[in-house]
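Reviewer 2 asked us to include a model.

Predict the structure of this chain.
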Amino acid sequence: MNIDIRQLRYFLAVAEERSFTRGAERLNMAQPPLSRRIQDLEAAIGAPLFERERRPLRLTSAGRVLYEQATQVIEAMDRLKARMSGLVATPRRRFTLGLVPSVLYARFPEVLAALRTRLPDVEPRRNGQRRASPRLGRRPHRCRF
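Predicted model (structure tokens):
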């Protein structure tokens, strides 16, 4: 069974409009090619998706299952697309912390979670040390953003 995202979008448009004609208008395409794509989808699934004898169109049981799942898939794809375009549009900044183990187990996980929530374009990284360094107090602190 080969189903692509475009077919799911076509199916959702027809299902939500409850009409091939209005679905085609919504998608800015002619109705015959849309009908053909839905027939291809039905052939791939092996079951009819719409009760065509009734107006407005109604989903069959297979159509209801596909509608539920297709909605989730399309929403996930839209979120992925937005996330990826956000990553590409704005490069992530790095924020590196050097920590001793005693700090790692205190409130650091809470602080890190808050940082990720408030600054999603910043990639926090930690640089944990096994034991305290004698140079720790002598080096100036540097934070680059």
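The domain at 5-88 is CATH 1.10.10.10 (Arc Repressor Mutant, subunit A). The longest helix spans residues 61-89. We have added this to the supplementary material.
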